[in-house]
């Protein structure tokens, strides 16, 4: 994700920065989103930056030709709560990439959801996709990026299944997955991308560019019937993200 920042004059005549767009397609974006639980300790302190790398540009995690970027700043959501998993989101501001983008590697930034799109993807008929190098049914991490499509879940049903075992799906999260289970993100996928492609065109039969709808957060087991995957809701965090990014990139 990479913002294009615009200077505008507000009603009091003051010059302020606003985020004009998030989808500039920057091959080496400097803003990354992840889960707060990936970059914070139980004590509440933030993970050490030294040694933290952001790797992109290849679906094979063991490949040589990939883009490696260092992290300059970690900004966990101030209201992240590791008991309720509320606001499980963090921003990483990356230093300039130290290496060039290798041939064939094509990392791309993804747009943040626009408030006006939300109704269309928060619908049980809407497909989302999630991907990661997390564990598969054999119990091991995957060397290759594994994508899976999951529908937006009926939120009342998802909340009800989890409350049956005493777990709460916080209002800053939402669930995706089939009622019958079987397709899900899993351990090691946390912090990863859940996205939706809105339909476009006169007959709504074309797919527009992907929009980042969620961040992999938690679940009970993986792919269990009724226990859908739980994701941090990105749309609700847009104002916080924009604010932090503008502060950090200026
Ligand atoms: N908390 C996990 C992680 O740290 C993600 C679990 C997602 N689980 C699920 N059933 N969707 O990688």
Concise structural overview:
The chain is mostly beta strands. The chain is built from 3 helices and 14 strands.
What's the topology here?
Elements: E1 4-9, E2 15-21, E3 31-34, E4 53-56, E5 67-76, E6 90-94, H1 118-121, E7 127-132, E8 146-151, H2 155-163, E9 173-176, E10 193-196, E11 199-200, E12 206-207, E13 211-218, E14 229-233, H3 238-249
Antiparallel strand pairs: 1-2, 3-6, 4-5, 5-6, 7-8, 7-10, 9-14, 10-13, 11-12, 13-14
The structure holds arginine.
Residues 134, 184-190, 216, 218-219, 222, 229 line the site of arginine (ARG).
Commentary on this structure:
The protein is mainly β and 250 residues long. The protein is 10% helix and 29% strand. It contains 3 helices and 14 strands. Strand 1 and strand 2 form a beta hairpin. The radius of gyration is 18 Å and the shape is globular. The chain starts with a strand and ends with a helix. The mean pLDDT is 88. It binds arginine. The site of arginine has 13 residues, from strand 13.
């Amino acid at each position: 994700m990479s913002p294009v920042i615009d200077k505008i004059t507000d009603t009091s005549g003051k010059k302020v920065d606003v985020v004009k767009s998030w989808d500039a397609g920057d091959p080496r974006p400097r803003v990354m989103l992840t889960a707060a639980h990936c970059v914070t300790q139980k004590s509440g302190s933030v993970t050490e930056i030294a040694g933290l790398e952001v790797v992109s540009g290849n679906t094979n995690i063991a490949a040589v030709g990939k883009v490696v970027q260092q992290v300059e700043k970690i900004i966990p959501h101030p209201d992240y709560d590791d008991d309720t998993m509320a606001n499980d989101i963090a921003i990483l501001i990356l230093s300039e990439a130290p290496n060039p983008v290798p041939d064939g590697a094509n990392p791309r930034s993804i747009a943040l959801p626009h408030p006006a799109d939300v109704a269309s993807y928060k619908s049980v008929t809407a497909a989302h996709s999630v991907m990661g190098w997390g564990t598969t049914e054999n119990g091991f991490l995957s060397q290759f990026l594994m994508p899976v499509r999951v529908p937006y879940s009926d939120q009342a049903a998802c909340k009800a299944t989890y409350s049956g075992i005493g777990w709460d799906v916080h209002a800053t999260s939402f669930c995706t997955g089939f009622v019958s289970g079987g397709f899900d993100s899993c351990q090691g996928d946390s912090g990863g991308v859940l996205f939706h492609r809105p339909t476009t065109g006169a007959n709504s039969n074309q797919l527009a560019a992907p929009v980042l709808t969620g961040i992999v957060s938690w679940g009970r087991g993986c792919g269990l019937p009724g226990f859908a995957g739980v994701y941090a809701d990105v749309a609700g965090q847009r104002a916080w993200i924009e604010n932090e990014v503008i502060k950090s990139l200026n």
